[in-house]
Target: tRNA (cytidine/uridine-2'-O-)-methyltransferase TrmJ
Amino acid sequence: MNPLQPLDNVRVVLSHTSHPGNIGGAARAMKTMGLGSLYLINPRSFPDMEAERRAAGAWDILNKTVVCADLDQALSGTVLAAAVTARSRDLSHEVFDARQGALELVSHARKSPVALVFGTEMSGLTTQEVSKCQIILHIPADPEYSSLNLASAVQVMAYELRMALSEPGPVPRIAGMAARFDEIELLLSHLERVAVRSGFLNPEAPKRLMQRLRRLFARTRLEKEEVNILRGILGACEKRMQTPPPIALGSSGASEEIPGDSCIDRSDENELDTERTR
Model:
């Protein structure tokens, strides 16, 4: 395998970039380290002559840049997303420094697409954007002046990713095929739908339930097969909720319906229900 091939699986995602020169500077930083996939979320101005000028020869990256409407679109198909942020967050995500985070990303990029997500120049990533990533990265800097230019931050991380190629890195914690971002999002939507229909979740007062579930899945790093199992269970529960309850037969000796019976594991039914809910 080409030793640089994992870098082809790394997306650099810039969210709501306000200055087109930073887009060009980021493209130049990427090209010097062998990265080539740039994704933009609602940039203020792109394409732009200033971006081309600052790219200084990295025009091929600008020409194939993917412009997205939101972070969900930018992360679609990835199995791991790292939020680069300087602010501490009230989240339960794993936090890595730049070097450790690069090793983590490359270990997954050897098999599947991953993303490195940067926020706006002024305020960085929103808490909602960070919550959609699985890990958080910090670039160590002088605490008295830790603000990095966006293109400079991309350069630091691009360098660390290239250096991580020569390291064995951590062994991915999951043995099977990792679930993609969009598969996790569909699972969360399915969970929310069933929670509302069952009465467990009040949509008028959700109390951050879905945020907590999102954090749980970020920590556990679900496999594709595990997502399918959970979707199958949810599908079976939905089907049971659509069926009228059986008539009680009193003490005639007939078996009483077991609470929660709809969630008993039935492999064949789970697979069928999973297909129906996709």
